[in-house]
């Protein structure tokens, strides 16, 4: 997984303006289940998006949502027009909306895979094709992807503010005789949620600065805590025990604690002394 320096800039901006990105919806495919996505095999070849477990994961995780343009069993090329359409994503009251995801070829020597991501308030193919919010590329054109890495993409969704729900569609098309394209961590974020959701997401950490332990207080159940350095690199998947995070093994300096709770995710700067 490639962490762009933009992430560090976004963190700095978030702290300077006292705002934080909140996770509205995410699918990381770690449950190996994509049954909540609507799948369309528009080319009719019997192949579609699948949950895929590579032998060596590229981003520290184990599973992707993937589509093929070559059939290894028959050793024949495919011409996919495969669609994966997300379930409805509730964005009521959210502002500063964005969509991010990871994408990459399974084999960098066979990387000329074309895909398009669409976002719409409707969930039909016609809705997506008519949407002005879309992003298309041949992933083989990105040199970073040719190192066998998943690369991150972000799409501005500000045009969907004041909407009730949105859908995301991922389409694998205009490709043939390559291999496999992988998608991961499809995430919708916001900088502001509806008032009722913000109160549920409210998180505080203390003491700050700290030498050994951070206490974490949240308005809803916390499912994960992660520690990043100020360049946006994850340095620890921390463990929350009795509302406390052990940070004594960190070197002295500034860090970011990302707290994921039932109502969303927030990020908090802290100092380790």
TrEMBL record:
Superkingdom assignment: Bacteria
Keyword Signal: yes
Keywords: Signal
InterPro entries: Cleaved_adhesin, Secre_tail
Cross-referenced Pfam families: Cleaved_Adhesin, Por_Secre_tail
Signal peptide: 1-20
Location of the Cleaved adhesin domain: 28-188
Entry keyword annotation includes Ribonucleoprotein: no
Secretion system C-terminal sorting domain span: 205-271
Cross-referenced NCBIfam families: choice_anch_J, Por_Secre_tail
Protein name as annotated: Por secretion system C-terminal sorting domain-containing protein
């Amino acid at each position: 997984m490639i962490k762009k320096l933009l992430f560090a800039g976004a963190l700095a901006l978030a702290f300077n303006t006292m705002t934080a990105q909140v996770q509205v919806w995410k699918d990381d495919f770690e449950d190996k289940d994509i049954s909540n996505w609507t799948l369309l095999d528009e080319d009719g070849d019997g192949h579609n998006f699948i949950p895929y477990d590579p032998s060596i994961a590229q981003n520290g995780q184990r599973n992707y949502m993937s589509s093929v343009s070559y059939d290894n069993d028959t050793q024949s090329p495919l011409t996919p027009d495969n669609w994966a359409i997300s379930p409805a994503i509730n964005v009521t009251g959210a502002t500063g909306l964005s969509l991010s995801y990871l994408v990459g070829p399974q084999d960098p020597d066979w990387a000329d895979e074309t895909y398009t991501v669409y976002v719409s308030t409707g969930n039909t193919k016609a809705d997506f094709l008519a949407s002005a919010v879309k992003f298309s590329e041949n992933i083989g054109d990105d040199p970073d992807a040719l190192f066998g890495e998943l690369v991150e993409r972000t799409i501005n969704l500000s045009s969907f503010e004041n909407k009730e729900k949105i859908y995301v569609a991922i389409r694998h098309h205009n490709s043939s005789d390559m291999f496999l394209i992988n998608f991961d961590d499809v995430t919708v974020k916001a900088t502001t949620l509806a008032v009722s959701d913000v109160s549920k997401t409210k998180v505080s950490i203390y003491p700050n600065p700290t030498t050994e332990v951070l206490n974490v207080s949240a308005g809803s159940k916390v499912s994960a805590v992660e520690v990043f350095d100020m360049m946006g690199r994850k340095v620890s998947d921390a463990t929350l025990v009795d509302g406390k995070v052990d940070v004594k093994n960190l070197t002295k300096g500034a860090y970011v604690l990302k707290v994921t709770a039932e109502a969303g995710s927030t990020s908090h700067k802290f100092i380790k002394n």
